[in-house]
Amino acid sequence: MELLAVRTARLVAYLNAEELNPSGHALAHDFMKAFVERYSFIKQPTTADEILDPQNKGLIFELGKWNDVGVAKVILFDWGIAVETNKSTDASESVLQDMLEWGAEKFGMSNRPNLITRMNYVSELVFSSEMSLPAISPNPRDPKTSISIHAELRYSILIPFPILACLHD
Predict the structure, then answer these.
(1) What H or E segment, with its residue span, contains residue 55?
(2) Where does the pLDDT of residue 133 fall: very low under 50, low under 70, confident under 90, or very high at 90 and above?
(3) Residue 22 C-alpha from the chain's centroid
(4) Mind spelling out the 3-state secondary structure of 82-134?
(5) Residue 40, CB-side half-sphere exposure with 13 Å CA sphere
(6) Please, what is the end-to-end C-alpha distance for the chain in angstroms?
(7) Which site in 5, 69, 88, 137 is 20 to 30 Å from 150, CA atoms measured?
(8) Are 165 and 150 in contact (CB under 8 A)?
(9) Of the ranges 3-7, 14-18, 76-80, 135-139, the best mean pLDDT one
């Protein structure tokens, strides 16, 4: 089994965004400008609708970087933060941690240990294998296929958690 690419490595961290700014400092303008500058985002919210977010789609920042990590997308919601890279969920988690530390240092935002109440991870991997999918299961979309692919990946790239395979023709 050979890992060809990490198409998506997404981390979703659940937190109450109001707790990030317990002192109620006016951050909107300065924070957005500094955030875009720090992570070199090419795309950012620019219209009043995108910034005020009346439909709660989140503030979307795209195509940035942090150190050697390409940051595909960051979405700031009132209920949490989603960070997506094309490297690994560990890299996405490191980006999030840097964001929280930087926000605390630069803007006095909260970064207390239990600020994040839960985290979810999603990875979409592209790989090749000598293993024939029909040999695993006559139906490649059968749940047994995911189990077999998980078993192979677990030992090939040392991923210790469940994998749901989404196979495409």
Answers:
(1) none
(2) low
(3) 25
(4) EEEECCCHHHHHHHHHHHHHHHHHHHCCCCCCCCCCEEEEEEEEEEECCCCHH
(5) 9
(6) 19
(7) 69
(8) yes
(9) 76-80
Q: What is the DSSP letter of 81?
A: E
Q: What's the pTM?
A: 0.74
The label of the residue with tokens 């890992």 reads: 3
Residue 65 · residue 84 · CB < 8 Å: no
Which pair of tokens denotes residue 15?
């937190």
Number of H helices, E strands in the chain: 5, 5
CA distances, 146 to each of 27, 131, 133, 151 (Å): 45, 13, 11, 9
Token pair belonging to 64: 């940035």
Structure tokens at 49: 């609708």
Helix (H) / strand (E) containing 64: strand 59-66
The amino acid at 138: P
